[in-house]
Specification:
Elements lengths: L2 E11 L1 H9 L4 E6 L4 E6 L4 E3 L10 E6 L2 E7 L8 E7 L9 E2 L3 E12 L3 E7 L2 E6 L3 E5 L8 E12 L2 H5 L3 E14 L6
Antiparallel strand pairs: 1-7, 1-8, 1-9, 2-3, 2-5, 3-4, 5-6, 6-7, 9-13, 10-11, 11-12, 13-14
InterPro entries: CRISPR-assoc_Csx19
Length: about 190
């Protein structure tokens, strides 16, 4: 089964404005990086919620995602108002006002995958959020709910496409893109 991956781009935009423009009404989860920390976030379709002590004003990179699509945002270090570039990736060609449609990636083979997160779930910390603990990073709030001591993973889709150059002409394929879909309880077991 082949599919097409569509992408939209918007430059010089704040993270929350990018979310309103690309994912208004969608519920997304994800993570952000700031100079002081990395932390999980949840977008309820209108408001961005971060874990305890997270400073959204210092975010320089963010990835928020759901089955409907993934928003990637990167702050421009030269922009004094903290604006950056945003890209919305989706398997649905839904135009957004003010966003530029990029060339679609066609003829891709989607492969379902998982990436295990380090840590074990603890107690709920607020509605839709739980604590997750690992010796490597301590206690963090994560926008997921499960039983104590369960493991979480990112569910994602990798997209196989033709390799460039003569390798592709010879039939070789490679992962040309990936898209995160959710944070979910993982059935895998094992150590941290």
């Amino acid at each position: 089964m082949s599919c097409t991956l569509y992408s939209l781009r918007r430059q010089e935009i704040a993270l929350t404005d990018a979310l309103h423009g690309a994912a208004a009404g969608e519920v997304l989860v994800g993570f952000c990086y700031s100079p002081a920390s990395a932390f999980f976030v949840r977008w309820d379709g209108n408001t961005l919620d971060a874990g305890e002590g997270a400073d959204l004003g210092q975010v320089y990179e963010a990835r928020l995602f759901a089955e409907a699509g993934e928003l990637r945002w990167l702050r421009d270090p030269e922009h004094v108002q903290g604006l950056g570039d945003a890209v919305w990736l989706s398997e649905s060609p839904v135009p957004r006002s003010g966003w530029t449609q990029l060339s679609p990636l066609e003829g891709l083979e989607p492969i379902a995958s998982q990436r295990l997160l380090t840590g074990l779930l603890g107690k709920p910390v607020k509605a839709g959020w739980s604590s997750m603990h690992a010796p490597r990073h301590g206690e963090v709030a994560v926008p997921a709910v499960g039983a104590a001591d369960q493991r979480l993973c990112f569910t994602l889709r990798e997209y196989l496409g033709q390799a460039p150059g003569t390798a592709g002409e010879d039939g070789n394929r490679l992962v040309v893109e990936e898209r995160l879909l959710a944070i979910a309880v993982c059935n895998n077991t094992g150590g941290q």
